[in-house]
Here is the input.
Amino acid sequence: MEQNKRLPQSIIYSVCAVALLWCIKSAEILFGWDLSFMGLVPLHANGLLGIVTAPLVHSSLEHIFNNSLAILLLGTMVFYGYPKSWLKVVGLVWLLSGIGVWLFAREANHIGASGLTHGLFFYLFIVSIFRRDRMSVAIMMIAFLMYGGMTMSIFPREDYISYEYHFFGAVAGLIAALIWKNTDPKPEVKKYDWEGSDDSKDNKVWDGEWQNSETENSEFENNRLH
Here is the structure.
């Protein structure tokens, strides 16, 4: 019952996050605002603000659309599968990916929520390896089917794409999985009445038959030797 309620709640959380991004982008277009100051410029004091604000700003409608879809899907999976740790995971990925970019990225103005989406994907991927329960593996397989290409986008491609944000988002997701892999309890494995009973009966029958056959063989051997 609780899981049935958690799914719509997870979708609502993801929709609200995406709505916030689109409100910011719409205001930027409608009012002609220049939000470049919210970007993350590595090793610049004024770029420190971007650690918090850069994921909220996008360069184009295509850019925000791609990230919105990923946040909607991956965010829903994280919220649904890991209700006790999702907020910690999102916070760590958000801040740690920004810090990594500020310290080590190329000299440029880095913007967009790509670091967050990569962090969520790699969290789902790595945490399922440690937990190995059915729900974690199922969520990971769905995420990998849709966004498995993120495993390659952490490497340099086009010059205008911040692969650094992708890379440090993935690192943050891995760290989050290591820290909070056991925070959420694993779902209980249901056992039915018929499980185990048939096996015990079969074993008893088999043991009896085996013993009977051994007794018969021994009697046969004794008769033959005498």
Summary: The CA atoms of residues 36 and 109 lie 8 Å apart. Confidence is low (pLDDT under 50) at residues 200-211, 220-226. The helical segments are 2-31, 50-53, 61-81, 86-104, 114-131, 134-147, 163-180, 197-225.
